[in-house]
Amino acid sequence: MSQTPERLYPPFLSLCMIVKNESQHLTRCLASAQAYVDEIVVVDTGSQDDTVAIAQQFGAIVKHFDWCDDFAAARNFSLAQVTGNWILILDADEELVVDDRQFRQSLATAPPELLGFALSRTEVTLLEGDLAGGVHVRLFRNDRQLRYQGRYHEQLRHQDGKPLTVAELPALKIQHYGNSDEQAVLLKTIARDIPLLERMRQEDGLSLWLLDCLARNYVRVGELEKSQDCYHEAGDRLFPHLLSGEPPTEFFWVPTLLYTLAEQALEQEDLETARLLVQRGLEWCPNYPPLNYVAGEMLLLLGFPLGATAYFNTCLQLAQTGNYYRQDPCPRPLMTTEPACSLGRAYLQLEQIPAAIAAFELALSFDPNCPIAQDSLNTLRGA
What we know:
This protein is α/β, with parallel strands linked by helices. It is globular. It starts with 12 loop residues before the first strand and ends with a helix. It is built from 14 helices and twelve strands. α10 (about 290-300) runs antiparallel to α11 (about 305-320), α12 packs antiparallel against α13 (about 355-365) and α13 packs antiparallel against α14. The strands form three sheets. The protein has an eight-stranded mixed β-sheet, with helices on both faces. A two-stranded antiparallel sheet has the order 7-12. The protein has a two-stranded antiparallel ribbon with strand order 9-10. About 35% of the residues are buried.
């Protein structure tokens, strides 16, 4: 922690964390942030390793919280221990990257109505895929009205129900290492995530977002039938909205879910369901790249390659301009490599060979190892 007098008392920026058995990651996390914060608060929820000792080595204020299967409860307890004007939230398996050491000035001069800042987060490993977008509000005012809600994948909310007014802060970024150990992720999925989500499902029901989380967790452990059960429930809940055209009130994760369900429908050659999912998805969220991508794939399957090119080009344009829907994270290949490859396939069907070659070359510029683009170009150049 910096020892400049103006940053000692009262604390201006506090790092706030909840941890359990994080000795593998915690040193990296604390070392990355220590120089930029005035206070470190670490709440331990039952570690049996060296986590607490590591936190103490960095001068952290260590508190203890009895784990109760509720991430929001633990987060809110940790917030109550903080004394800084601003709060930075990191997980132990994350690292703070500071591109501009003067970022604190942005906090000091922030208008009163601005409650926080969103930081971009990058996956160091690709176990979860290369994702773009997603809103990560990790830096916010120490305001008692700002508290977390949700037992799992907790979200920051204003207690009065007011919308959170936040801005992006490019000076700070987060690197996530938590998926670097696939076996550890698998064990955590089996021992913690699935049981907790199933309890929540039985007690209160799950949001569409958490239903998708549970489905993906079941895929990770090879329980494909249980995963499909979750998706069937999600589809049933979305069906009235698909018919009426009125999007769900809680829209977060709906675009991702519509894309996933449409992909499944195409795999099952259920073109009518896929058409309805894609139609509503693009009405509700026209600038979400995966929905444009699956729309193009559907048209290719139906034999309309010219129409498909428009959707694939839209994906590429959204990536180029950065003007895409960011509330849900977007798999980066679905707005780069995949639409470029599919554009090449569409031009082949249209017998526009130079355009097809250009599209496959574009795909290789995103991913030099793309097998479809490599094989297609080898065939076309050898013809």
